[in-house]
Amino acid sequence: MATDPVCGMFVDERTAELTLVRGNRKFYFCSTGCLRQYAEPERELAELRGRLAVAWPLALLIVILTYLVRSPDAPWLAFGLASVVQFYPGLPFYQGSLDALRSRSWNMDVLIAVGTTAAFGFSVATLFDRSLAPTFYFDASSLIIALILTGNYLEYFVRERARGTLRRLDEVRPTTAVVLRAGQATTVPANEVNVGDRVRVLPGGRFPADGTIRDGRSSVNESLLTGESLPVPKSVGDPVLAGAVNGEGPLTVEVTRIGSETFLSEIGRLLAEAESSRVPIRRLADRLAALFVPAVLGLAVVAALAWLVLGAVAGVVALLVFVSVVITACPCAFGIATPAALLVGTGRAAEEGILFKGGGTLEAASAVSVVFTDKTGTLTRGRPTVTDVVPAPGVNISELLSIASGIESGSGHPFALAVLDAARRVGASPAAVGNVVVEPGRGVRAERSGHRLAIRAEPAPAGTGWGLGPLSDAARALAQQGKSWSVVTEDDRALGLLGFSDPIAEGVPEGVRALHHDGVEVVMLTGDHEGAARAVADQVGIDRVYAGLGPEDKLRQIRDRQARGAKVAYVGDGINDAPALARADLGIAIGAGTDVAREAGGVILVRSDFRDVALALRLGRRTIRKVRGNLAWALGYNAILLPIAAGALVPLFGLGIYHVLPVAGAVAMALSSSLVVANSYSLRWVSI
What is the pTM of this model? Predict the structure, then answer.
């Protein structure tokens, strides 16, 4: 069963006729009104305002005619005005009821149409046969329609504000692009740009696709996509994203991703999925919503008959009991309790460059008690430099860097790039090597002229037959300085050491403090040496460190903590981290990470900012708390007010209470779902 993304009611996919495909996703709707509100929100809002402009003045006139005007013509005039209200402002409720009958499902419109029609129809019958009852109820049917339309308007307004991020993403897509073909600049529709094309983006223009800068320098505003408030300097070789705004200089960009493959489309897809995303906590709401409308209709009939038969009341009172019950009920509160909170929570996260892959990920984030984090590229900037080159006796620096750069020439690891840069600085050409094998978390092996070469990221295990020998003191000195180091070996003989320094990434201490403030433990798992790991941990405020770990060791740490009942998140950015990201209860791939890491993560942090880890978990907790609060409100509202509508207060106030209960029920119902959405909207202000 699908759910309507507007009202949250169940829709049977097998019989549904009202559907809409958007962003390669099919949405199902319980009524034409919901479909139009989702597909054409501005037009639907204009029509809603028009109906309200008719409903309220006429409803107030009907109240005046009913209670203040003592003329025999007043009831007939009230009848005429009520007919207009019933079948113009109230028309969408009848259309929604017909849609429900066609799809053999239930929706909120059924209750409203049945309740108002009962009051209106009884009043018409009374008008033509005064013996049925002494009073007319045109005021009740008209006020109910006006109040419910007002509630719809308030709910619509808040929901559209909550959907603002998704709407703004649609607005930033450029419609045209300037493509350089055969040396000529040609303006074409943006959807005709192909991968490999070179496009020209002038100052103030938006990029039509993801790409890489091939010519020019500028600054780029990516705030809507990454949450980065300041323009980011860009030059040749830097990536740019579709929808971002070019700054002061013209740029030539080679297109790498187009259409649905762009990062902009990925954000939009994840936000759209959040609207209809299912989380485990929603199962109760789904079961309640599926049975709610028929249960309410049954309760209304039983309550009316009970008062009529057992209470010996007049038929008009029994009718008012029926109308009060069906009008007071609010199944929409159950339906939108989850999607409203998910929509606002994921939208707020997206504004900060935090992408949740589905509502289940949000719920996982809400339960995290321990964050395991990698070091290089996660807590540090991921751009290390070679600070020390210590050759063994008989080996010169140029030879050492030549061998090291040859081994690392095919790797994209940050330390490998640092080695290649160091070799270029001294003019050392990479040595020709073969049979290169990357050992994740350990180093790289290769062969040259029958000799076994390696760059190892850890001391020699006992019994392996190799060691640091005369380089041991240098290794200890590097570790005491808080530097990472690797040893270059040939046939298990140490040729030299390479020392690395990688500055702490911006925002890491603040992110760790925020996690500690929220009661989340932070633990470092790294393949680096104890000294370098401890130096970083001391700077950022992490107490527990496990160093010298390979990928399987990280998995063991995660499994051990999970076995003790902890909900574990893992934060990483590289290929080495993919297994840990997948094994954790929540994988968080940080911005500069590889495609493999991003695919394995349940949360993607667009920026390389550790503060976003704390914000992601805080948003997860607050969002799920809002879902639970919304469900509690919906359950409590209906559990308390439905018995009142059925007559629970009659022993205290008498049957006269039914002169106000239908209208009071409409007010309560109109406010109920609006309060659920407004409560969810408060997630907009979550921060660290």
Answer: 0.76
